[in-house]
Design the sequence.
């Protein structure tokens, strides 16, 4: 069972997407919430909107960076998980999972509607993002 969306604005952001995009984004949400729940270092997540899209980050400061979900604007049937482009996350993901994922520059893991999400690889990427500040050089902060 997936946690209900408590924030009305976040719920509306999901509801604004047509099916099957909504279902695909909600699947990524489920994976993000499960990853955080299984990873004691991450702790409780904040679910909010950034740039009008659902976004997730640890409630505790200096743990991780934001993961945002949304449609890829340049491709009708594409959606993804977006990461702060000034981190090294996408570079790391490309090295770890060159065959499992498609990427959009230095900012996103991209999926096509109907594709199966490689769940364990995606969970690993989410855990790396949500614990990013624990490994980032001191003085570097990306929310």
Sequence:
């Amino acid at each position: 069972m997936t946690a209900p969306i408590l924030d009305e604005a976040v719920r509306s952001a999901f509801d604004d997407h047509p099916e099957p995009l909504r279902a695909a984004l909600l699947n990524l949400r489920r994976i993000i919430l499960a990853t955080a729940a299984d990873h004691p270092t991450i702790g409780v997540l904040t679910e909010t909107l950034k740039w009008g899209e659902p976004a997730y980050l640890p409630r505790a400061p200096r743990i991780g960076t934001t993961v945002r979900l949304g449609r890829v604007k340049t491709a009708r049937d594409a959606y993804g998980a977006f990461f702060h482009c000034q981190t090294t996350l996408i570079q790391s993901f490309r090295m770890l999972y060159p065959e499992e994922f498609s990427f959009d520059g230095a900012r996103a893991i991209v999926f096509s509607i109907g594709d199966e999400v490689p769940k364990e690889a995606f969970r690993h990427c989410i855990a790396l993002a949500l614990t990013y500040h624990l490994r980032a050089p001191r003085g570097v902060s990306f929310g």
The longest helix spans residues 21-38. The beta strands are 45-50, 53-58, 67-71, 78-83, 102-104, 108-112. The two ends are 28 Å apart (CA to CA). Residues 85-100+120-133 form one domain.
